[in-house]
């Protein structure tokens, strides 16, 4: 009998193309993928009795995971200073007085203050960046507003900046009045706030400056975070690669009869061994995966069940988000479910080809949706195609219908089509990608093979 490696090569020749020709019509792609799927299912159903040697080798539980991202470097201070300067220029050009954020992704991006380093509470700690004109140059003035009794701890925060100021407010003072006293406010010059800022802080700032418009930061500001630097992409790449490696390592240790809860423990152990923080995992077997985020049960794995693992974590604050739907070597998956797997895989491939600089985000979603509708699954792809990823697991822009967002170089997204037939089966495949300097889409998981290759090889 042929080995799986030989089968994989035949499948690759039949189904996988190294470069998608963008000029073909959807109907041509539909015919191409239909023929490829039929051929692949034939091979898959009859020639997978002998598994890859890697699945049977007895090796250390999480061998190699710890070393994969061991050389990862945090974003350096000079890059954060450049971000502050870029923001200050936008503020100046837009006639805005300042940009204000509280600990979270945006404060991390512009000031190295994350929720992990400063827990949110009812007492606000605020990062304020304002533009200052010095000798015909725009520079960023950085101010941190802190509760007075926490000032010593606040000063320990590693906030990059030139002459960073720390201004405290006492318990019997209004923190928003104190914050605005550090600015040169003028009528008609708005204050921008981070779009994720809690409402009571926005309200407090507005009440402290009744003649000044407090508004969410416009697109020019949010695009700074949306377009990733090379250093950011390096962290995203490694985090997403090692997450796939974790899923593969867990697959090698699974067996028919194992429970979802046991696999959740395994994937968390693997992600921890890989060095990821803020770990999470969704593990669903069989029909449980027909609910995209699960049902809360603890199903035992049956021979006819697909396994869905959606997992991620953070590497130096940057997120991974990967989904694989796969089988075990001794599984016996119904052919109709295998066909769905390959249809979802084709949808992911087509969407990846459509995602490029200048494309509309809604158009990319439509490519995947039209393909799946044409394959007979209309109404079973129930969520958007993808979301932005970076310092937040889900951030803008989004790949969904009804948007006018234009894809730009440096954008990073998830690409996660799925089919969910309640009571029967749920299949989702997710890889994140970015837009390179040439305007083309590149999977963040490319370095370890990119997309899942087959149901047996995630």
How would you sum up this structure in a few lines?
The chain has helices spanning 4-15, 26-46, 65-68, 77-94, 105-111, 151-154, 175-180, 199-208, 219-226, 230-251, 260-273, 335-354, 361-377; strands at residues 98-101, 126-134, 137-147, 165-169, 191-193, 214-216, 277-285, 307-315, 318-319, 322-326, 386-388, 395-399, 412-415, 418-421, 425-428, 431-435, 441-443. By secondary structure, it is α+β, with helices and mostly antiparallel strands. Mean pLDDT is 90; it is low at 1-23 and 42-59.
How far apart lie the N and C ends?
A: 22 Å
Calculate Rg over CA atoms: 25 Å
Neighbour order of strands in the largest sheet: 4-3-2-1-5-6
The total of beta strands comes to: 17
Overall pLDDT: 90
The gross shape turns out to be elongated
What share of residues are in beta strands?
A: 15-25%
Number of helices: 13
User: Which bin fits the share of residues in helices?
Assistant: 25-40%
What does this structure look like?
With 458 residues, this protein is an alpha+beta fold. Helices cover 36% and strands 19% of the residues. It is built from 13 helices and 17 strands. The protein has a six-stranded mixed β-sheet with strand order 4-3-2-1-5-6, sandwiched between helices. Strands 7, 8, 9 and 10 form a four-stranded antiparallel β-sheet that branches. The longest helix has 22 residues. It is elongated.
């Amino acid at each position: 009998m042929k080995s799986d490696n030989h089968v994989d090569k035949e499948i690759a020749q039949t189904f996988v193309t190294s470069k998608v020709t963008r000029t073909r019509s959807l109907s041509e792609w539909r015919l191409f993928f239909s023929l490829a799927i039929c051929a692949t299912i034939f091979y898959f159903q009859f020639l997978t009795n002998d598994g890859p040697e890697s699945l049977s080798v007895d090796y250390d539980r999480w061998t190699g995971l710890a070393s994969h991202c061991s050389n990862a470097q945090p974003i350096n201070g000079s890059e954060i200073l450049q971000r502050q300067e870029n923001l200050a220029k936008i503020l100046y050009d837009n006639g805005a007085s300042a940009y204000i954020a509280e600990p979270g992704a945006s404060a991390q991006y512009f000031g190295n203050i994350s929720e992990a380093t400063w827990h949110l509470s009812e007492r606000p700690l605020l990062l304020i960046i304002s533009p200052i004109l010095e000798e015909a140059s725009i520079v960023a003035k950085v101010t941190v507003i802190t509760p007075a009794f926490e000032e010593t701890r606040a000063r320990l925060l590693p906030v990059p900046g030139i002459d960073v100021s720390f201004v405290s407010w006492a318990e019997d003072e209004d923190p928003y009045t104190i914050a605005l006293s550090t600015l040169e406010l003028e009528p008609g010059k708005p204050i921008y706030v981070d779009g994720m800022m809690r409402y009571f802080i926005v309200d407090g700032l507005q009440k402290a400056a009744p003649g000044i418009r407090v508004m969410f930061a416009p697109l020019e500001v949010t695009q700074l975070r949306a377009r990733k630097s090379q250093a950011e992409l390096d962290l995203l790449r490694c985090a997403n690669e090692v997450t796939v490696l974790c899923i593969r390592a867990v697959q090698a240790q699974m067996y028919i009869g194992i429970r979802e809860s046991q696999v959740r423990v395994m994937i968390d152990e693997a992600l921890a061994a890989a060095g990821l923080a803020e770990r999470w995992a969704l593990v669903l077997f069989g029909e449980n995966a027909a609910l995209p985020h699960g049902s809360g049960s603890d199903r035992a794995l049956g021979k006819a069940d697909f396994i869905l693992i959606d997992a991620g974590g953070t590497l130096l604050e940057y997120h991974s988000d990967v989904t694989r739907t796969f089988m075990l070597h001794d599984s016996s998956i119904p052919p109709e479910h295998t066909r769905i797997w390959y249809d979802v895989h084709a949808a992911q491939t087509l969407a990846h080809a459509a995602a490029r600089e200048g494309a509309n985000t809604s158009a990319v979603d439509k490519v995947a949706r039209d393909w799946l509708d044409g394959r007979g699954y209309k109404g079973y792809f129930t969520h958007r195609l993808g979301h932005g990823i970076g310092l937040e697991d889900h951030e803008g822009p989004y790949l969904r219908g009804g948007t006018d967002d234009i894809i730009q170089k440096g954008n990073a997204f998830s690409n996660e089509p799925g089919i969910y037939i309640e009571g029967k089966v749920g299949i989702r495949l997710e890889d994140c990608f970015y837009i390179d300097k040439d305007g083309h889409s590149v999977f963040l998981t490319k370095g370890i093979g990119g997309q899942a290759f087959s149901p047996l090889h995630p």
